[in-house]
């Protein structure tokens, strides 16, 4: 991560802990490196339900079968955290078993 942003590990930790502020330019670069929309960093601050009754315009949305709009699960913080945790599993066999378990659970619910 640090190499991709040309930052030291210590500086990354300062950003993570909120010790140092992060500039908008660096935030855009970080979103690009992480392959997430810039709104990823603001999910907890954005609330649906504007005065006109619409959802927040900065939330990612995808069409659903009924033609409604739904939040894109690939733009959610939870998705990125799940992927990060998955790749932190160092044993490849265990990682494959976790993947198989999740896939099994997901297919049983449909």
Walkthrough of the structure:
By secondary structure, the protein is mainly alpha-helical. The chain has a domain at 76-110. The protein is 47% helix and 5% strand. It contains 5 helices and 2 strands; from the N terminus they run αααββαα. The chain has helices at 2-5, 9-17, 24-34, 77-87, 92-108; strands at residues 61-63, 69-71. It has a two-stranded antiparallel ribbon. Strand 1 and strand 2 form a beta hairpin. The protein is globular. It starts with a helix and ends with a helix.
Q: Compute the average pLDDT.
A: 74
Low-confidence stretches: 50-54, 56-64
Straight-line N-to-C gap: 36 Å
Written as H for each helix and E for each strand, in order along the chain, the element string is HHHEEHH
Query: Whole-number radius of gyration?
Result: 18 Å
> What best-fitting shape do the alpha-carbon axes yield?
globular
Structural class: mainly alpha
Q: Main β-sheet: number of strands, strand sense, barrel status?
A: 2 strands, antiparallel
Helical residue percent band: 40-55%
Arrangement of strands in the largest sheet: 1-2
Number of helices: 5
User: How many individual β-strands?
Assistant: 2
List the helices and strands and how they pair.
Elements: H1 2-5, H2 9-17, H3 24-34, E1 61-63, E2 69-71, H4 77-87, H5 92-108
Antiparallel strand pairs: 1-2
